[in-house]
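Hi all, posting the design record for the shared folder.

TITLE: backbone redesign
STEP: 1 of 1
STRUCTURE INPUT:
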């Protein structure tokens, strides 16, 4: 079982990525409303990257089956 501090660290990292994604999505929405579709597209891609990173935080399935040395 994982130590509580390690779980909290994983949650904190995930929350930082998700918060950044929300900020990028909000900025993309504002850019789109202002008519700057190119900037909105770039911001959406950045937000999706942050969501992807949030999903990668923590142990991976293969690491649970066979821990790295």
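Okay, here is what came back for every position:
SEQUENCE:
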């Amino acid at each position: 079982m994982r130590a509580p501090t390690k779980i909290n660290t994983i949650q904190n990292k995930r929350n930082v990525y998700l918060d950044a994604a929300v900020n990028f999505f909000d900025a993309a929405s504002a850019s789109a409303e202002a008519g700057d579709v190119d900037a909105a597209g770039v911001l959406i891609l950045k937000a999706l990257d942050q969501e992807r990173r949030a999903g990668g935080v923590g142990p991976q399935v293969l690491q649970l089956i066979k821990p790295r040395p």
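COMMENT: The two ends are 18 Å apart (CA to CA).
Let me know if anyone wants the other runs.
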